Amino acid sequence: MAIDIAHIDAPPSPLFEAPALPLDTARASELGARGAGRRQPPATRDLLKGAPYVVDFCDPSPTTALHAGYLRNIALGHALASTLEAAGAHVARQTQIADAGRDMGDAIAGYMRFADESDPAAAGEKSDRFVGRLYAHQVQGGERDDALADLLLTLLAAGDGPTRQLWHAVRDWAVSGQNETLARLGVRFERTIFDSQYVPRIEPLVRLALAQGVIEGSLQGPLLVQTGGRAPSQLPLIGSDGRPTKDLRALTIWRSLMTEMTDVTLVRLTSEERRDNLDEILRGLAPSNNVYPTAVLHAEVVTEQDTGPGGESTLLIDDLLDALLAHEALRALAIEERPGCAAEDLAAMVLMGMCLDHPLHESLPITEHRVLDADGNTGWIFARAWMKAWDPRNDGGPLPLADDEHYRSLVAQSQLLPLVDRAVKGLDVLRLVRFLARIGRWYLETDADPAVGRIMRSLLSSGLGGLGLVRTQEVNG
Prior knowledge:
Blueprint: H1 5-9, H2 25-35, E1 52-56, H3 71-86, E2 90-97, H4 102-114, H5 120-123, H6 127-139, H7 146-157, H8 161-185, E3 191-194, H9 195-198, H10 202-211, E4 223-227, E5 233-238, H11 246-260, E6 265-270, H12 276-285, E7 295-298, E8 301-302, H13 317-325, H14 328-333, H15 343-354, E9 364-365, H16 368-372, H17 378-389, H18 405-413, H19 417-426, H20 430-444, H21 450-466
Parallel strand pairs: 1-2, 1-6, 2-3, 6-7, 8-9
Antiparallel strand pairs: 4-5
């Protein structure tokens, strides 16, 4: 059944104010019985059937626990990847671990100077927090030891065994702890790229670019590329210390991906300003290939919280999840024995949902107060509507109420095809998020029959599941 997009954007009755979509009794009964309480394979699967996508997001430094500055990027990237999957695309979530830069030298130096225990287990500390604490000691003003960090990076580049072993341990402690946090959010990555894997390709890439005249300069550095466009500038690729910059490492990764996997749409979510100048160089290096990333989405984050050394937020995602788990209102909602309804599930839904209800171009302040605000945080609407739908009183078989105005309108609205279509074409899930939020508010304010609750289960399982906000793969009544 096709539903006009304009009609969905305008609120329909009785959920909203516009006339309800026409739906005869037989059709309402059929759709309602088919979808009551279960997440259905949506008709949206044919929108991008089998199309290959890579969605790159998070991209953390392995020197700290995941803080609030990463949260919006994680929520948006996971939601977009999930919506593309709902549209039938073959999606790989990708993250890049920046383990080859100066931060790693500081992290290793911090371990050598300040670790009283041999490892996180001995310290009784989550592994990413262990690394983050030692890194922070190293980089804070009066404690910094640049000479040691530089020496360690030099030894690492020379292949020194003990230094490499220590680097590997520190990196893996941080990544392991970060993965624990991501699992709490229901986020997984099919592809993990380490900068260090591409370091051997940097020199050949620079030599190629110099030989082709794409850039001019010297391998010894500093290497500055004069860029044109609306804002001409010099783009540093090799610093005065002779080491590749973050931009050169990024160039190497993107050029490698361009030549290794073709005909893939690669979307990157980032909180950093896009370097359009990199595209100029990539086109010159591989003129016959699609330039990656295919699309870059910039989502600014403002964390209204004290920052630690290096300008990183001290507000950690784990701490926000723990604050939600300690919140009386969230504990009262949870049904621990019901799949997808435990307190951990709801905490992830509230936290991730909060980050989705804002246009990309608007900054999002993240504070504990905002997270716990049950009235202003859209994630709470999702969680409360979800739990009302999954109230045991709504359990039962598919018994349609085709003559009930609430039931008929909700069944009509549960067909999400136009909104998913718009989301994947525009790479923007905002309309889908706000549609689900409006229906959630209506449902929370309505004294609805259990049959309506079972339809809400289906709608929210497909809608919120399509945004990656339902941590279980399948939730059945």
